[in-house]
Amino acid sequence: MRHSDTVVWQLYILQTARGMLYTGITHDVTRRIQQHQGGTGAKALRGKGPLLLRFSCVAGDRASASRLEYQVKQLTHQQKVQLVESQPTSIENWLKQNG
User: Fold this and answer.
1) Which residues pair with residue 58 across a beta bridge?
2) pLDDT of the residue at 77
3) Using CB atoms within 10 A of its CB, is residue 17 exposed (0-12), middle (13-18) or buried (19+)?
4) DSSP codes of every residue in 46-90
5) From CA 41, how far away is CA 92, in angstroms rounded?
6) Which ranges of the chain have pLDDT less than 70?
7) Residue 56 has what pLDDT?
8) What does the alpha-carbon distance between residue 92 and residue 89 come to, in Å, rounded to a whole number?
9) Domains, the chain, ranges and CATH?
10) Of 30, 65, 72, 75, which has the fewest CB atoms closer than 10 Å, so is most exposed?
């Protein structure tokens, strides 16, 4: 996703066949999921498919996306489940209230 020549990063959460929730960032969610499905993405997801996109949101620039990714990765599994289930319009506000 691009806004007038500026790369817009996204945070995404994938669910594995066994229910594990994986959090990552990218500027092209579709391409990244294809990489994960094909085994060329994160090692943690190899052989864990099929993968299901459970959540994604715009995360701003690379630095902002990295900060959000870190915050989400610090959540417990149950908190991540709540995040996915609530599908907040503002992840920053959700994290302030629930993180």
Assistant:
1) 10
2) 95
3) exposed
4) TT--S-EEEEEEEEESHHHHHHHHHHHHTS-HHHHHHHHHH--S-
5) 26
6) 1-5
7) 96
8) 9
9) 2-98 (3.40.1440.10)
10) 30
CA 40, 65, 73, 15 torsion-angle sign:
negative
The pLDDT value recorded for residue 6 is 77
The token pair at 6 is 């500026």
Cα separation, 61 vs 48, in Å, equals: 29
Q: Which of 67, 91, 70 minimizes the C-alpha distance to 82?
A: 91
Place of tokens 């094909």: 38
Q: What is the pLDDT of residue 5?
A: 58
Provide CB contacts within 8 A for 58, sequence distance 6+.
1, 8, 9, 10
How far is it, in rounded angstroms, from Cα 6 to Cα 17?
35
Token pair listed for 41 = 């993405």
pTM, to two decimals: 0.89
Taking only the tens place, the pLDDT of each residue in 30-55 is 999 999 888 888 888 888 879 999 99
